[in-house]
C-alpha cells in the first residue's frame, strides 16, 4: 500500500474553477454501474452526503476538490432517486470503511456517462481496462498479501498523485477510492488503495505480497493513468 497522506508533499494541488450556481439535472434512467457504462458526478459546490435521500446524518461533505489530493472531485454514482420533487444521487464515499455510500442533492454536481471500467481479478491476479465491455488491456498484477488483502467491492478512481523522483512506486500513482479493511492506518496516514509500479519492490507479478495496493508494470500504470480518469469505476473481485 502506498504512503497516502493528506499532509504529504505528493498531493495534487491544481485548482480548477467550476460554476457555483446549482444546475438542473436529469437523472439517468439506469444509474447503477454496469459492465458497459456508469455515471460519474463532478462536484460543483459543497454538498453533504446523507444516510438517506434528504435526511439522516451527514456522512461526508464533498467540496469541489478531491480530498487529500486536490484537483476535480469526481464521484461514482451508485443509484438515483427523486423524493418530494428533489433529485438525489447515491455516491461512493471517499472515506473508510471501504465501499460506504451516501446520498447527495443532484443539482450540486455535473453528471457524465463513462464507458470505461477497470476490473481487478484477485483470483487471476490481473487488471483489465474495458471500454463498453471490450478489453483494451489485460495485465498481471501483484495483489494484497493474505494478512493485508486488497479490498473487494465496487470502487472508483480517486486521483493521480505525483511521486518524488526517487520513489519506489513509480513517477505517479493512481489512487482508488478504496481503503484497507485490515489496517486502520498505514505509515501514519489513511490506508488508501492505489495502482502503482512494481519494478522496485521485489515481488514478481502474479504474487500476493502488497499491503493492499495493486502493483503493475510501469507501462501498465502509464496506460491506466491515460485511460482511467477520475471517477472511472474500479471493480475488485475475488
TrEMBL record:
The active site is at residues 196, 213. Pathway: Cell wall biogenesis; peptidoglycan biosynthesis. Residues 116-237 form the L,D-TPase catalytic domain. The keyword Cell wall biogenesis/degradation applies. The keyword Ribosomal protein does not apply. It comes from the Bacteria. SUPFAM superfamilies: L,D-transpeptidase catalytic domain-like. It comes from Solirubrobacter ginsenosidimutans. Keywords: Cell shape, Cell wall biogenesis/degradation, Peptidoglycan synthesis, Signal, Transferase. This is L,D-transpeptidase. Residues 1-24 form the signal peptide. It holds the Pfam family YkuD.
Amino acid at each position: 500500500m502506498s504512503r497516502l497522506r493528506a499532509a504529504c508533499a505528493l498531493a495534487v494541488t491544481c485548482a480548477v474553477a467550476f460554476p457555483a450556481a446549482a444546475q438542473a439535472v436529469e437523472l439517468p434512467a439506469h444509474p447503477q454501474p454496469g459492465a458497459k457504462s456508469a455515471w460519474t458526478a463532478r462536484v460543483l459546490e459543497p454538498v453533504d452526503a446523507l444516510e438517506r435521500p434528504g435526511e439522516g446524518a451527514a456522512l461526508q461533505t464533498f467540496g469541489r476538490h478531491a480530498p487529500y489530493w486536490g484537483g476535480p472531485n469526481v464521484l461514482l454514482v451508485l443509484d438515483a432517486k427523486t423524493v418530494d420533487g428533489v433529485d438525489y444521487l447515491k455516491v461512493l464515499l471517499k472515506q473508510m470503511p471501504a465501499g460506504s455510500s451516501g446520498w447527495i442533492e443532484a443539482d450540486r454536481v455535473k453528471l457524465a456517462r463513462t464507458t470505461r471500467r477497470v476490473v481487478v481479478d484477485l483470483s487471476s491476479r490481473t487488471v483489465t481496462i474495458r471500454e463498453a465491455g471490450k478489453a483494451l488491456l489485460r495485465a498481471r498484477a501483484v495483489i494484497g498479501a493474505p494478512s493485508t488483502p486488497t479490498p473487494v467491492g465496487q470502487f472508483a478512481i480517486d486521483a493521480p498523485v505525483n511521486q518524488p523522483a526517487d520513489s519506489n512506486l513509480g513517477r505517479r500513482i493512481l489512487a482508488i477510492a478504496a481503503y484497507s479493511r485490515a489496517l486502520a492506518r498505514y505509515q501514519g496516514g489513511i490506508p488508501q488503495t492505489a495502482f502503482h509500479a512494481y519494478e522496485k519492490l521485489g515481488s514478481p507479478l502474479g504474487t500476493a505480497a502488497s499491503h493492499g495496493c495493486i502493483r503493475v508494470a510501469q507501462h501498465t500504470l502509464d496506460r491506466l493513468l491515460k485511460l482511467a480518469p477520475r471517477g472511472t469505476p474500479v471493480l475488485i473481485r475475488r
